Amino acid sequence: MTKSMKITCPVCKKKTVWEDNQFRPFCSERCRLIDLGKWASEEYRIAGEKKDIPDADGDEKKEDER
Ligand SMILES: [Zn+2]
């Protein structure tokens, strides 16, 4: 059977092993952190967009000018 399953790191596409790999499915801690950072930066971008909604501000201005 497949005693040492080979996997491909999704970050750097390097071949690595599944067994005895504490960073799987990545080949190393570095690639795992890169992947985590990708998710974190995406979440940060969404949060930033939410914070920058111009709708409420525009309504307030309209009432002020009336
Ligand atoms: Zn890698």
Order of helices and strands: EEHH
How much of the sequence lies in strands comes to 5-15%
Shape type: rod-shaped
Distance between the termini: 78 Å
Strand arrangement across the biggest beta sheet:
1-2
Structure characteristics:
mainly alpha, binds zinc ion, 2 strands, 66 residues, two-stranded antiparallel ribbon
Topology (SSEs and partners):
Elements: E1 6-8, E2 15-17, H1 29-51, H2 54-65
Antiparallel strand pairs: 1-2
Walkthrough of the structure:
The protein is mainly alpha-helical. The protein has a domain of 39 residues. The protein is built from 2 helices and 2 strands; from the N terminus they run E-E-H-H. Strands 1-2 form a two-stranded antiparallel ribbon. The termini are far apart. Zinc ion binds next to loops.
Summarize the structure.
The chain is mainly alpha-helical and about 70 residues long. It has helices spanning about 30-50, 55-65, and strands at about 5-10, 15. It is about 55% helix and about 10% strand.
